[in-house]
Amino acid sequence: MHGIKIATLRSGLTSHVIRxxxxxxxxxxxxxxxxxRRQYSDKNIQRLVWLADLTKNGHAISNIAHxxxxxxxxxxxxxxxxxxxxxxxxxxxxPVIAKTLEAIRNFDQCxxxxxxxxxxxxxxxxxxxxxxxxxxxxxxxxxWHEGDITTAEEHAATSFIKDYLCISARPFNLAINAPKLxxxxxxxxxxxxxxxxxxxxxxxxxxxxxxxxTSLPPDEIAGAAEKIGARAVVLSIISPLDDPQIxxxxxxxxxxxxxxxxxxxxxxxxxxYGPTLDELKITQLKTLADLSPVLGILRK
Length: 300
Known about the structure:
- The chain is an alpha/beta fold.
- Helices cover 59% and strands 8% of the residues.
- A hairpin with a 5-residue loop joins strand 1 (31-32) and strand 2 (38-39).
- The protein is globular and about 70 Å long.
C-alpha cells in the first residue's frame, strides 16, 4: 500500500485531482488507516494512470470513472493503438508542458513565449501547434474543470497563447488572391483556443483568415461568410461537450449558408455530434493536423 505522495508521483496527477476524482466520481477506493490517511494499492494507482492518460486524450472523467479495471485497460490499449504518434509526442514533451503550466500559474507571459520560440526554432511552427499546444490546452481544460487551476489562470492561458499566435502568424506572406476562411465557434461555445490555433495554422498555409471570436449565432456566421466571400467556414467545438443546441445551430447554419461553402468542424468534442455532421455532410477534423490537407483539397 502507498500514500498519496506515491500515488501522485506514479500517476502524474495532483493530490487535489485524485481526491476530487475519489469524492465526486468514485474513480478509486483507497483504504483508510486508523489515523484516517488514504492508502493506495498498486491496482488503485494503475487505475489512476489509465484515467490520467485517457482524460489527457479527450475522455471526460465523468464518462470513464465508473469503468472496471478490465474496461479501462482495454480503452487505454485502444488509445495507444489508434493514436501512437500523438501519445508518444505527449509523453516526450511532458517536461515542456509542465514548464508551460508553471509559466501560466505564475502569470509569466515572457517565459511562456520564450518556451514557444525555442520549440519553433528546434521543431517548427506546425510542431508547436499540433504537438505541444493541443495537448497543453487539453491539460489546462482538464485542470480547470477539476479545480486544480483557477479561472484566472485558465484565462491567462487563453490570453497569452492568443497573443503569441496573433503575432507569430503575421509574417506569413499572403497572395493577393488568397482564399478567405471564416473561423469562429458555434453559439454557446466559449472556449476559443482551438479556433485560434486553427486560424494560425490556416494562415501558415496561405489562407486569408477572418477570425470572429466565439459563440456566434448561425445566421451571423452565414451572413459574414457570404459577405466576405469565404471559401469555407471552420468551427471549433470544445466545451460544453453535450450541448443539445449544437445540433440545432448546425442545421440552421447549413440551411442558411450557401451550399457551395463547406463547413469544417474540429475540436476534441466535435465527435459527440457525429450523426448530425454525417447528415449535413460537414467535414470533421480528428486532429489539427487534418486541417491542412482539407484546406489543400479546397484550394484545388
